[in-house]
Design brief:
Blueprint: H1 4-19, H2 21-50, H3 53-69, E1 75-81, E2 95-103, E3 106-113, E4 117-123, H4 129-141, E5 146-153, H5 161-166, H6 170-178, E6 182-186, H7 189-201, E7 208-209, H8 216-236, H9 238-243, H10 249-256, H11 258-278, E8 283-287, H12 302-335, H13 340-349, H14 357-372, H15 377-388, H16 394-404, H17 411-420, H18 433-439, H19 445-452, H20 457-482, H21 492-504, H22 511-523, H23 530-547, H24 549-567, H25 571-583, H26 588-598, H27 601-641, H28 657-664, H29 669-678, E9 682-685, E10 688-691, H30 702-717, E11 719-720, E12 725-736, E13 740-747, E14 750-754, E15 760-765, E16 770-776, E17 781-786, H31 791-796, E18 800-801, E19 806-811, E20 816-824, H32 835-844
Parallel strand pairs: 1-4, 1-5, 5-6, 6-8
Antiparallel strand pairs: 2-3, 3-4, 7-8, 9-10, 11-12, 12-15, 12-20, 13-14, 13-16, 16-17, 18-19, 19-20
Helix pairs in contact: 1-2, 1-12, 2-12, 8-11, 16-17, 18-20, 19-20, 20-23, 21-24, 22-23, 23-24, 24-26, 25-27, 26-27, 27-29, 30-32
């Protein structure tokens, strides 16, 4: 079946050229992937087959014979010898044995005839089919092509062949069914000798030819006639063969009996042939000697022919698919750079060409997706409905296309795109009437209602008109509300002048707005437009408030805030101003926030966006300022520090006490940053620093807050000096085991004999080494010591902490232990809590900013 694939692909390649890109697009990837895949698969399969040891052995035998004889092996044949008799090659001088191997108990022999026929024979001394099946599997793996299969039997096996093939020889039956040319050969020593003498001293008839496709009676007649001729030919030569050849009397007697022997086998041969043919086995011939060949034409070598055809078709398929793929790729590359209008012009040109249908469809789909993806979900649904519905008018579709393309197309181009828009559904997907009224011009209401509500078009048009009128008034009111204070908030100095003028002339606030509101109120229905009338009332109330003393105070605070922002020239000044806002209630930002809480809800909604815009401007500058200071002065030192010991237990280098002091010492880098930049924004609650509850836009990162908290913890765990670190513990022995006699703790000039009854105060100084001497009763002293800046941590890392205060050391060599209790003299125990390592881990797990 593998040889059919290139043929099929070749036909598809021809079809792709005939029908263009509609076929090319579908099958080009099949050509590019499948065909090389088949070739690679065949190459790998062929390589692994050629490396099979048995194939290499057989091919070596054949190659050697061809070199020595100067001839060529024409074909390979397989012999399954079930006769339990070996071949006597002395009777066949033209056949030589060139291969002999054993596989389990099976024997594998290779014979080569002078005429170039190679015979591979397998046999088992007791016909054990399991061993023969294993050998057959190995032969199959060689993928050698055998032209004929010889089934070699003894004459007395013919009568039981049918029963054996149906039972214990079913494996042989399967092989016979799979073979296209089967030859039945009788192998018996006396019969083989007689056939040899007949061939040497007389005329040996050719093998019996069998036609497996004819009917049973015709088959009997064909074989019976050939057997009669065979017997008659030998019978007519019996006297000459038995008198003249130089053979003994026994051999002459056997030779004389050959016609009778074959005649006795006639019934068995006819029955066996009929069974094999009726079972679907392609029996071609019956012979009595390996050299005896039937008279027949040389069959066509379909395997070689199909191989050459497959290679040819594969080459053609590759070439054609490459041409198609290259042509399509060039066109795709060209149109990928076209604008929407240019692309539509191109698609319109190729619209009438069937061969470009797929290309046109693909590009239209891409354009459709591109145009729809930028639309809001409600409008996308609406536009899809207009373009997909059969009830939509052409002018509605063209208008929709113009909306999707932002009026970048001509009417002709829009008409083409609307016509080619691929229909996905004729059903109208519900869209709120308010969305329709907002998106559709009034002159298209009738077209829209024909699609959305075909059974109630008049009601639909009236509803859309009412909604649009309502939306128009609402938009007008929103505009009035947003322009009550005609101030340019982006220009603070100009805004301050405008606010100063309005505080002096409050009656001018909303003067034109009130006239418009009166006109709007008169045009509204008191029942249908209650919501709009309420909004008109709220706007009037806002104007009245702004003209009042309370409103004037609001304007004055806005004036102060604009003046403040106008005077700020840098982020630092913004930071100082924001600090003042957190510290003083008189700051205009604080005042405006306080005022907002006391105002009616609708006025707060009006004032809040104005205040928020100014607040964001100020807070962004302040945040940026202290974040910049942090990134330049604190963060680099911190990132370097947490890479070193003891922040990182696996580091090969440790941080110096001087650097600890510069970063974590009192009134040093972190303390200074907290005091100067963050203290105004923070408050302490339950021992934790948190932002003050003022919603003024200040953002302090978790990184800063964590570091400030750990800075306080580290300062509470030890005394951080400019050139060294110090901490103190009350130390005593909790328990010790035999043979420990005495334990002495040393730090600098301190030498503290430890006991269970009283504690000794250990003063650790990072400048001095620290050690523990353990004296044993034998007089031996074992010293545990560390001479580094962090010796106290390194020394007690050798101990196991029990409850944060007790530390146990176990000596495995001498099988003893000591347990010490260290009670800290600082608020936080440096030894019991991994403070420094935890700081590094917490900073590492923070999300990157």
């Amino acid at each position: 079946m593998i040889y059919l694939i290139p043929t099929i692909l070749f036909c598809l390649a021809i079809a792709s050229l005939a029908y263009g890109f509609s076929v090319t697009y579908i099958f080009s990837h099949i050509f590019i992937i499948t065909v090389p895949g088949c070739i690679i698969w065949l190459a790998i399969d062929k390589y692994t087959t050629y490396q099979h040891p048995l194939r290499k052995k057989i091919m070596h035998v054949i190659t050697t014979w061809e070199k020595e004889s100067g001839k060529t092996v024409k074909q390979l044949n397989m012999i399954i010898n079930l006769s339990l008799n070996p071949f006597d090659l002395t009777l066949s001088p033209s056949i030589e044995e060139h291969l002999s191997m054993t596989f389990s108990e099976c024997t594998l022999n290779g014979y080569i005839h002078d005429n170039g026929q190679f015979y591979l024979s397998i046999n088992h001394p007791s016909n054990q089919l399991l061993d023969m099946a294993s050998l057959w599997d190995e032969i199959n793996k060689t993928k050698l092509r055998f032209k004929s299969l010889y089934l070699c039997l003894a004459p007395d096996q013919l009568s039981t062949l049918e029963q054996k093939l149906d039972n214990e020889w079913r494996f042989i039956a399967k092989i016979l069914h799979e073979s296209k040319r089967v030859i039945l050969m009788l192998n018996q020593l006396q019969l083989a000798q007689s056939m040899h003498y007949i061939k040497e001293f007389g005329t040996l008839p050719s093998a019996l030819t069998v036609t497996p496709t004819i009917k049973t009676n015709q088959l009997f007649h064909q074989i019976s006639k050939q057997l009669d001729i065979f017997i008659e030919t030998i019978f007519n030569q019996r006297l000459e063969l038995c008198i003249y050849p130089p053979i003994d009397e026994e051999q002459k007697y056997q030779l004389f009996l050959v016609p009778l022997t074959i005649a006795n086998l006639k019934t068995a041969l006819l029955s066996t042939s009929e069974y094999l043919v009726s079972s679907g086995i392609s029996l071609q011939s019956i012979c009595f000697q390996l050299e005896q060949q039937p008279i027949s034409r040389q069959p066509i070598d379909y395997y070689r022919w199909l191989t050459k055809l497959a290679i040819t078709f594969t080459g053609f398929a590759l070439c054609l698919s490459a041409i198609n793929y290259s042509t399509e790729h060039r066109i795709q590359r060209k149109i990928s750079h076209l604008s929407d209008a240019e692309l539509i012009n191109f698609l319109e040109k190729i619209d009438s060409r069937y061969s470009f249908d797929h290309l046109e469809y693909e590009q239209l789909q891409r354009l459709r997706i591109s145009l729809l993806k930028s639309q809001p979900s409600d409008l996308l649904n609406l536009y899809e409905t207009f373009l997909n519905s059969e009830k939509s008018t052409n002018r509605l579709k063209i208008w929709t296309i113009h909306q999707l393309t932002n009026n970048q197309l001509t009417d002709h181009q829009a008409k083409f795109l609307a016509r080619k828009w691929h229909h996905t559904s004729n059903a109208f997907s519900p869209t709120p009437m308010s969305s329709i009224a907002s998106a559709i011009p009034p002159n298209y209401f009738s077209d829209v209602c024909k699609v959305t509500t075909p059974d109630a078009q008049q009601d639909c048009m009236k509803t859309l008109s009412n909604i649009q009128a309502y939306n128009k008034i609402e938009t007008q009111l929103i505009t009035i509300e947003s322009t009550l204070l005609p101030i340019n908030h982006d220009n603070h100095r100009h805004a301050a002048k405008q606010l100063s003028y309005l505080t002096q002339q409050p009656h001018l606030i909303g003067e034109e707005a009130l006239k418009t509101l009166t006109h709007v109120a008169l045009s509204l229905d008191s029942v249908k437009h209650q919501h709009l009338l309420l909004r008109v009332s709220k706007i009037r109330h806002t104007i009245e408030l702004l003209r009042s003393k309370e409103g004037q105070y609001i304007l004055q605070q806005l004036l102060k805030l604009h003046t403040l922002l106008g005077d700020i020239k840098s982020d630092e000044e913004a930071h100082l101003s924001m600090q003042l806002a957190y510290q003083s209630d008189d700051h205009p930002l604080q005042q405006l926030h306080i005022i907002e809480k006391s105002l009616p809800e609708h006025i707060t909604k009006w004032l809040s966006p104005i205040t928020s815009e100014l607040q964001v401007e100020l807070s962004n500058k302040a945040n940026r300022h202290f974040q910049t200071i942090w990134n330049s002065s604190i963060k680099p030192s911190l990132e370097k520090a947490i890479q070193l010991y003891p922040f990182n237990l696996h580091a090969s280098e440790s941080i110096l006490p001087e650097h600890i002091y510069q970063l974590f010492g009192h009134d040093q880098a972190i303390d200074q940053f907290l005091t100067k930049y963050l203290a105004s924004y923070l408050q302490e609650e339950d021992g934790l620093l948190t932002l003050k509850p003022f919603d003024l836009g200040i953002e302090i990162s978790n990184e800063m807050l964590i570091l400030i908290m750990y800075n306080q913890v580290i300062q509470s765990s030890m005394d951080i000096k400019p050139n060294h670190l110090h901490a103190a513990w009350a130390v005593n022995i909790v328990s010790s085991s035999h043979p420990v006699d005495e334990v002495i703790l040393k730090s600098g000039k301190q030498s503290l004999p430890l006991s269970e009854r009283e504690s000794q105060i250990l003063h650790w100084n990072s400048k001095h080494p620290i050690a523990i001497d353990v004296k044993l009763q034998s007089g031996e002293t074992i010293t545990l010591s560390k001479d580094t800046n962090w010796g106290i941590l390194e020394l007690f890392s050798m101990f196991k902490s029990n409850n944060g205060l007790n530390f146990t050391y176990k000596n495995k060599e001498n099988n003893w232990h000591i347990t010490l209790k260290l009670a800290p003299q600082q608020p936080i125990n440096l030894l019991s809590q991994p403070i420094l390592q935890q700081l590094a881990q917490d900073l590492h797990h923070l999300p990157s900013r």
